[in-house]
Amino acid sequence: MAEDDEEPPTSKLLSFDTDSSSKSPKPPNLTPKLILIVVTCVAAAIIIAFGFLFFSSSSSSSHQPDVVSRPLKKLKHPVVLLISSDGFRFGYQYKTDTPNMNKLITNGTEAQLGLIPVFPTLTFPNHYAIVTGLYPAYHGIVNNYFLDPDNTTGGEAFNMKSYDPKWWLGEPLWETVVNHGLKASTYFWPGSEVNKGGWTCPQFFCKVYNGSVPFEERVDTVLNYFDLPSDEIPSFMTLYFGEPDHHGHKVGPDDPRITQAVERVDGMIGKLIRGLEERGVFEDVNIIMLGDHGMVGTCDEKLIFLEDLAPWIEIPKDWIQSYSPLLSIRPPPSYSAKDIVTKMNEGLKSGKVQNGQYLKVYLKEELPDRLHYSASGRIPPIIGLIDEAFKVEQKSSKRKECGGSHGYDNAFFSMRSIFIGRGPKFARSRKVPSFENVQIYNLVTTILNIQGASNNGTISFPKTILLPNH
Ligand SMILES: [Zn+2]
Q1: 192: left (phi over 0), alpha (psi -120 to 50) or beta
Q2: Alpha-carbon distance 290 to 111, whole Å?
């Protein structure tokens, strides 16, 4: 092959398809520069072709958009597991690595800028709005504590341990579910201990609130329900964690201890996911993870004292039903609520009351309509809206405290919580606009294919969040 040795190396590379012994015409004499271009082009084409093949194969496996809901693999009926992480302010999920919540988010549907609570942005009014689809004026739990002047409740006081059904109006999801002959279970939820309609808070499926029960035990109990015979597995389950609300009140939303509380809740979601995976039902369960409200930092200098209004009007302590973050006042019937409102606002606007500009007082009928906070005798006649992070107290004291609070106007971003839906009825990797939590009731009844009670949610709303039936 002495001849070959004389050829330039590059043309030798191109001679592979040329039979030197054949009588076919000699290949054109390609210059080294042109050959280099050709080689580069071929290599680029190969890279593009492989890249296309790789991209198209990966998109067909995990990025194909969901068009219809996915069929159940193991469960015999749809199941909704509703999880509340109390006081999980929207944005907490970015404080630290939350791999388990991220697993729900990336494989599910998330309210991109959070879930909007109802007013007042307090625990009981919101949890009960979530399960009834009603605003507090209609579901009856207008505050965590209130007096009802109505004879039907004997003028008594409601508190967070009032289990008499006379307080709890509307039809909560567990009642709707059992009314349809399905099973429901509640591992804590405000109102779940109350006997209503067909719901009798059965011992095995209904836990009476006890904040000291470890989170792990709550998760294990819910997981054990999936070990029951298929027709015994509840169609609707609740699970409740009191964090990060507990620490939020103590240290405010920006303390490192909140980050730890968020990690703890994420760890519980991880334990739940692993347990569902071990049982082969993770893909079948519709998990809705949400919170009832957000949290904002409060501190000493942001205070408004009612005693400062004395030159305009005296507001005795026993007229006050709650000070903060919702000021509610029930004066004796002999007083004109309208006059009281006028005088209070005169004082607040005078510039002579410390932080007066951060409190606005209304007759409840004159509150902005968007708050839906007037159509109940349980709501006192006078309501004060307090600006974010401010607090109202009766009189000045030397008490110094900083922490966190919620209950303010639901228009404040800091009061928002989270919504994540993951399961056969939720599209994967989908973001939806924020919505009010009164829409959740219709979402759950739609997933379970049952007729819900009438409520303040929009009938067409579930179509905008859920996948249509397969
Ligand atoms: Zn709460």
Answers
A1: alpha
A2: 10
Q: How confident is the model at residue 49 (pLDDT cuts 50, 70, 90)?
A: very low
Q: Please, which residues have CB within 8 angstroms of residue 245's CB and are 6 or more apart in sequence?
A: 86, 87, 88, 123, 295
- Residue 380's closest CA among 148, 96, 59? 148
CA of 122 to the centre of ligand 1 (A): 6
**Two tokens, residue 10:** 């590059």
Q: How far is it, in rounded angstroms, from Cα 407 to Cα 121? A: 4
Smallest Cα–Cα separation from 38: which of 10, 4, 12, 16? Answer: 10
Catalytic residues: 123
Ligand 1 centroid distance, CA of 385 (Å): 19
Pairing of strands 419-422, 109-111: antiparallel
Q: Which of 41-45, 198-202, 216-220 has the weakest average pLDDT?
A: 41-45
Give me the chain's average pLDDT, please: 88
Selection from 208, 264, 240 nearest residue 83 by Cα: 240
The pLDDT tens digits of the residues spanning 287-340 come to 999 999 999 999 878 999 999 999 999 999 999 999 999 999 999 999 999 999
Residue 20 CA from chain centroid, whole number: 76
C-alpha 127 to ligand 1 mean position (Å): 8
Range of weakest confidence among 145-159, 168-182, 189-203, 215-229: 145-159
Which residues make Cβ contacts (< 8 Å) with residue 282, sequence separation at least 6?
A: 273, 276
pLDDT at 63: 53
CA of 248 to the centre of ligand 1 (A): 10
**Consecutive H or E run containing 371:** none
Distance 330 CA to ligand 1 centre (A): 25
Q: Residue 82's closest CA among 196, 187, 207? A: 187
Mean pLDDT on 254-260: 96
Which among 463, 427, 420, 469 has a CA at the least distance from the CA of 72?
A: 469
CA of 137 relative to ligand 1 center, distance in Å: 18
CA separation for the pair 64, 56 (Å, rounded): 10
Round to whole Å and give the CA distance between 238 and 215: 13
Instruction: Round to whole Å and give the CA distance between 392 and 387.
Output: 10
Per-chain residues with Cβ under 5 A from ion ligand 1: 86-87, 123, 245, 292
Specify the residue for token string 């369960």. 285
Are the beta carbons of 81 and 287 closer than 8 angstroms? yes
Cα–Cα nearest to 274, from 73, 100, 74: 100
- 8 A C-beta contact, residue 423 and residue 465: no
Question: Is a pLDDT exceeding 50 seen at residue 440?
Answer: yes
Structure tokens at 128: 């009960």
Structure tokens at 393: 């107290």
